[in-house]
Amino acid sequence: MKVDFWQLSRDPADRVVAMIAQRVLGSGQRLLVVSEDPAQLDQIGKTLWNTAPAEFLANGKAAATGAERQPILLSPECGAANGASHVIFADGIWREDASKFERSFLLFGESTLEQARACWRSLDNSDGLERSFFRQDEGKWVKVA
Fold first, then answer.
1. CATH value at residue 6
2. Residue 59 belongs to domain spanning
3. How far is CA 38 from CA 55, 79, 90, 127, in A?
4. For residues 127 and 114, what is the distance between their CA atoms, to the nearest angstrom?
5. Structural domain total, the chain
6. Half-sphere exposure (CA, 13 Å, Cβ side) for 102?
7. Of residues 47, 50, 45, the one with CA closest to residue 60
8. What is the pLDDT of residue 139?
9. Average pLDDT value for residue range 32-36
């Protein structure tokens, strides 16, 4: 299992989700985006639909009809009705259900920095777990650890 920690600074969560989603879908995988904040999920959904005129990223909410067909599913919970192999925790809150996915992305900012640090320490590289840390440097995302 891979776990990527993404420290938000310049770009908001919805834009980072869209960037990651393009890569996940480009690799033929499905994605679950989790946030307890309904307004954040709404904003992420709008950003995904409007990423580029020719390359919108189709998505839907977990409670909607046809959720299992969505390539990107937006949900307040960690259940992937769409069979997603990747999950993004857009609200900065780690969930233990992350172990159900091949790859997890934890997006965090100033308000969730301490929780992200604690999570990093709790997830050591044992048992086949691979951790990575990314942050923005002059607008570009750089892998730091």
1. 3.40.50.10110
2. 2-143
3. 24, 16, 11, 34
4. 24
5. 1
6. 8
7. 45
8. 82
9. 98
